[in-house]
Structures are given as C-alpha cells and as structure tokens.
Design brief:
This protein has 15 helices and eleven strands. The chain is α/β, with parallel strands linked by helices and about 325 residues long. The radius of gyration is 20 Å and the shape is globular.
Length: about 325
C-alpha cells in the first residue's frame, strides 16, 4: 500500500493532476466517482490566499468524499508561502502540495513554479520551512530540471526527502520544454530506482490512455501516476486503467453515457459557480466529451455558442437522439 505520510492512497494510486480552471470541485468529484484515487485542487497563488481573495479561497472547497485530497499552492516568497500554509491548513486537507513545476510564463517567469529550478538552494530552503510549518504532510510536484543542460531531479528528490517531503511527483520534461516534445520517463525511473529514496515517486507526462498508465508501472516502476489533460472529457480513464490492471481489458463508454456524464458535469458546475460562468467554462470540455464521433460538427459549434443552460441541455438531448437513430 502506497502512503503519503500515514495516509494510504492505494496500491497503485491514480491522481487527478491539478490543472488551473479545470480541476475544480465539480470536475474532481466526477473523476472521483469514476475511479480517481487522489485528488488535488487547482493550483493556488500564495499571495492570493493570504489576501483572502474570493476566487482562490473557493478553490480550496471540497467535500469529504473527495479524500484523500491535497491543496496545491505556488509562489516564490518564503514569508508569503509560510502564511499561506496556515490558511491552507485551516481547510484541513490530507496533504499540501508545493508546485515547483508549472512552466507557464506568468508563474515561472516570476520565479515560482518551475522557475524555482533555477535556484535549487532557495527551493530547498523554502520547502524546508514549509515542511516545518505544515501540520499535514507536504509533497512536491516538479520537473526534471530547468533546461537540457541541468536535470538534477535524482539528486533533488533525495534532498527533498531529507528535508521532510513525503512524496514527489515528477513531470518528465524540463521547464524550457513547456509541454513540447515527448515526456522523458527515464529520469523518473532513475529517481524511483535510487536506493536512498524511500518516499513514493509518482510519474506525470503524456499519460493519455489506460495502456500508458499501466505501462508506466511495469516499465518505470513508479508508485502511481498523475493523469491530467487526458481526463478532460474522459473521467472514465481512471476506472478503465483499474479494469486493465485487473482484467487486461476495459469498457468504453457509449455515446449515451458520454452525454449523461457531460450533463452531470454541467449541472454540477452550474450549481457550484452559477449558470453564466459555467456555460462559458464548460466549452473547453464539450469537444473532449464527444471526441471522435462521426458527423459531430453540427453540434460542436452550437455547443460553444449558446449562452443558457436550457439551450445546452436541448443540444445534449439532440446529440443523444442523433446517435441512437
């Protein structure tokens, strides 16, 4: 049984990888019902939390059935992050995840996220202080390194373990790569194979199918995987991976099941965020829910154009009827 501190997270835990403006409460709960073992909040800026910003505080909301759940934070200022830890601890998550991996300019360009990989001593100093401050286990999500000339992840994982980190998640790219090219899992495997390392190592990057999630265990020996973009419009990927591990096969959802889960997601989002915001935010999900369907163009444009809940529900009913004729 894999543990984060004393928290059991499964034999081969499947994480819903945190994604900004995607892994909100309605989507997390949907993935949980479809087999995700561990959930993590959208990443939250430490500065926003200590200012009590409404949107950021809302990102920390969760229901008990989502456990085990982590809240992920990012920043580059030690004092702000320490104060942020106090705010997050009040929400009583199972663990706090420090994001030293986000490569986007607005984060890394300010020295947060994977931008901190340019200054490993500072990264370790801040992380050590956060571990000492936190009443719950602290984990880290990071990358192989800043660029191809410096990939210190094997040593860095050891250093993080030595200052008290309870698990590490590694994306198989550098900061400079962003999301380009293929993820390199060889260094993730090397990190896991390090005999000095006792904490769980979770792999991340290019897990787009249940087969790849299973292969990551067999080939690279990781303790679990994070599934991110592949879960958008496809929460079934978690239960399919578990089916594949047990039975060497998995069930593909029917069009009707896709429609029903999409409707469920939409209604939960409206309840949580209100109709106007949800109608806009759900547009990023529709194409994924119905990816690969023949003759879907007639529905795609209306889905991302209408502005009311009732209009979307009518279109979903039309999709269901069209593909059962």
């Amino acid at each position: 049984m894999v543990k984060i501190g004393k928290i059991e997270v499964g034999e081969y835990p499947l994480f819903l990888s945190p994604m900004d403006d995607v892994t909100d409460l309605p989507f997390r709960q949907l993935c949980k019902r479809h087999g995700a073992d561990v959930l993590i909040s959208e990443f939250i800026a430490s500065e926003a939390l200590i200012r009590d910003a409404e949107k950021s505080m809302r990102k920390m909301l969760y229901d008990e059935f989502e456990r085990p759940i982590g809240i992920q934070v990012f920043g580059n200022d030690e004092d702000s992050l320490l104060r942020c830890i106090d705010v997050v601890a009040d929400a009583n998550p199972d663990f706090i995840d420090i994001n030293w991996g986000c490569p986007v300019r607005k984060v890394a360009g300010r020295g947060a996220g994977s931008g901190m990989l340019k200054d490993i001593p500072k990264l370790l100093k801040i992380t050590s202080a956060l571990v000492k401050r936190s009443p719950v286990p602290v984990t880290v999500k990071t990358r192989l390194g800043y660029d191809d000339s410096d990939k210190p992840i094997v040593t860095l994982a050891e250093q993080l373990q030595d200052i008290g980190i309870q698990a590490i998640s590694i994306h198989g790219r550098t900061k400079s790569q962003m999301y380009r090219g293929e993820a390199d899992w060889t260094l993730i495997a090397e990190t896991k194979a390090n005999k000095r390392l006792c904490i769980p190592v979770f792999g991340n990057g290019d897990i787009t199918t249940p087969q790849q999630a299973v292969e990551a265990r067999k080939r690279y020996g990781v303790d679990g995987v994070l599934i991110g973009r592949a879960s958008i419009g496809n929460p079934w990927i978690f239960e399919q991976t578990k089916q594949l591990l047990l039975n060497n096969s998995f069930v593909v959802p029917t069009v009707q099941e896709r429609v029903e889960v999409c409707r469920e997601h939409l209604l939960a989002s409206v309840k949580f965020k209100g109709e106007r915001q949800s109608i806009f935010e759900m547009r990023k999900h529709y194409g994924a829910y119905f990816r690969g369907l023949f003759d879907f163009k007639q529905f795609r444009i209306p889905l991302v154009s209408v502005t009311t809940l009732n209009e979307v529900l009518i279109i979903l009913d039309r999709i269901s009827e069209h593909y059962t004729e």
